[in-house]
Amino acid sequence: MRKSRPAGRMAGLLAAVLGLIAVAELSARGYLLVRGIPAGRYISATAAVREARAAASAGFDTEYPYLPFRPAPGRTAAPSVDSLGFVGPETGWEPPPGAFRVIFAGGSMVYDGLFPSAADSCLDALLSGGACGFDSCQALISSAPTWTTAENLVYYAIRGVYARPHAIVLYVAVNDVYAMSHPDSVTTEPDYSHYRSRWMPVAPAPWDRIPGWADSSRAVALARYALDRLFYPGVLGSPPRRLGLRYEYDPGQVVGTGFGSYVAGLEAIAAIAESRGTRVFLVSELQEPSLSSGPAMVAAVDDLNAAAAEVAARHSAKGLVSFVDAASLITADSTTMADKSHLTPEGGRRLGALVAGEIFRSLQTAASTGGSAGTAP
Amino acid sequence: MNASRKGRKVLFAAAGVAMALTALELLTRLALGLTGRDYAEFRDYNAWVHRASTAGLPSGYDVEHPLLPYRPEPLSEGVNSHGYRGEEFEWDCRPGVLRIACLGGSTTWDNWYPEALEDRMNELMDSLDAPFDSCEVLNFGAQSWTTVESFVNYATRGVHAGPRIIVVYHAINDALASTIPDGVRPEPDYSHWRTRWNPIPRPVWDLPPLWLDESRLAGLARYALNRAALSGIDPNQLGRCGIRYPYEPGMGESPFDTFGNNLENIIAVALNCSTTVFVVSQFHMTELTVEQFGSDDLARRVGRINDRAMRLSREYSGTGRVFFLDAADELRPDRSLMLDNCHFTPEGYRLLGDWIAVEMCAVLDSLEWRLPEPEDWR
Hints:
The complex is a heterodimer of chains A (377) and B (378).
Chain A: H1 4-35, H2 39-55, E1 60-61, E2 70-71, E3 99-106, H3 108-111, H4 114-127, E4 136-143, H5 149-158, E5 167-171, H6 174-180, E6 181-182, H7 218-231, H8 233-237, E7 254-255, H9 261-275, E8 279-283, H10 295-314, E9 321-324, H11 326-329, H12 345-369
Parallel strand pairs in A: 3-4, 3-5, 5-8, 8-9
Antiparallel strand pairs in A: 1-2, 6-7
Helix pairs in contact in A: 1-7, 2-7, 4-12, 5-9, 9-10
Chain B: H1 2-35, H2 39-54, E1 61-62, E2 71-72, E3 97-104, H3 106-109, H4 112-127, E4 134-141, H5 147-156, E5 165-169, H6 172-177, E6 179-180, H7 216-229, E7 252-253, H8 258-272, E8 276-280, H9 286-293, H10 297-315, E9 322-325, H11 327-330, H12 346-366
Parallel strand pairs in B: 3-4, 3-5, 5-8, 8-9
Antiparallel strand pairs in B: 1-2, 6-7
């Protein structure tokens, strides 16, 4: 008898808690029903906020003042980032003695390191005999997923130049196509700010640990919403998107901003590099048409590749800006392409070898004609 | 009887709560003492959060632009739809209009000097028979912008407005951004000095007044809640305009030639667009700096930056498209025309705008007003 009393109390307590939960759940459902509000509105709003909070810890620095985000300096998780903000092992502002230093700029196809590391190895081998006044190569990867010419221009001009690169290799096109594509209603901006905002950091909340399926309970969904509303009032209305992108790409969108931002970005990079005697290699971007989002995307990337060739031609007089037509010289197929734009390791190897060969040839030409090998301030 | 018993119970409960709080306060102080932690750092963090959250969204500024820490909010008071102070304009310049863009910080953003420049240019162009119908001056300035922000804005946005001339009026903000306190690692892009401008919503626990933080228990509880809600955000990232620390005389100086690099970038981009550049040294009244800071340290830093601007402009003078106007040396404003060491009164700004217009017209007249069409990259 004495033992069953505590058990009875426990059972009573449990029943009371369950009863309270049931009352809360019924109240929540009743509230939604009476007000005619679909629960999905709360659930999707809090899910978006949760996603934004989770994105804040993705290994990117979202507090840097001049970019929507960049690889976080000092990141140890792969791919590692050095303390200066370049992807890869620790470097320094001063190039190592005898090393030919190259900045590889672009989007995710550069960030993944396949093509820059292949080019680095090839150039290392080509220069190892002391040819052209250098005995090695050092590749600095200055890129991040979805970066366009706008981010690359800014990072190179206000940071990259201090690394005193002898050359900069730019491999970017498809990200600019995404940035140039927009729904009809969007007013375009020359700096692509119609397409991207800053990537807002949002601190994770303890209630994010409650799994999403728990929102099937209207009481939990409303409680989560109330907490988000209380602690994240500015975020709930317009949750920041991953990488700061304002909308998704759709093949039916209008392509073109009316500003010529891609060409203006390449022109600015070329002008800044030339003012410092730095070589520029504009590399046309490979694409696998059968995997592309549609003919509009294929045509747009082709157009930008052609525009890059024109930029190089306009700067030919000084002999520092070259165009490497990788899109014509390398076959884009399942051996070289992992998807419509990203390279396989084999694709990276072929592209790296091609670019390294072009750089080496330009150095040989410069050496034979007494021209600049590419110097920095 | 019942009432007095209830009263006694309430009294005992209140006394119990008070004793518990006192015990917790003492324990907290003891823990702080034993761990050797300085309570001031917790209290300062709470004060930072209070300042940042009560400032609200930075009025009149857009803090979500992807390439700038902030910029004038498009269509806010006095700002056009493109995010620049002044009248609405079309990206395409009208035929026959001489378009000039002014790059700078608050001394440009104040807008009196760009307005004065436009007025005076229009007068002078009439009298000099210049081959333009009119002059239009765009204001590409914002408060506390350095040459980094001006470069980013000009290279990614401003060039698309196709100005034939740009005027660069910068020095003091770069001088401030080049300061390095002990323990801070300098960065070439001033990111040691500035971060994003982070607007944060005011948390409910910020509502109780800050003097309550005299209680270590209350202060630490508020601190714990702040840290939980703002995890990952450094307190130094909550300053106005994203500035991490204030200036103090005698601070160290960055080893990077950031001002020179940015000015060179602006010149390179401008020349590539066939745009003419006027670099104007920034006027700075030393005696007002001494009054404010008790030292002429800042004035000397500004002087060094003006010298750098002059040397760099001369290096590019051979292009025939880069000119240096030494306002710092040639302007002699009365003290009554200054609001502080670098900001003028409206009359003072008119003096500056008039002077730049006269000097610019003299240069342009010597070039027979041959200003090429800016490149159109479309």
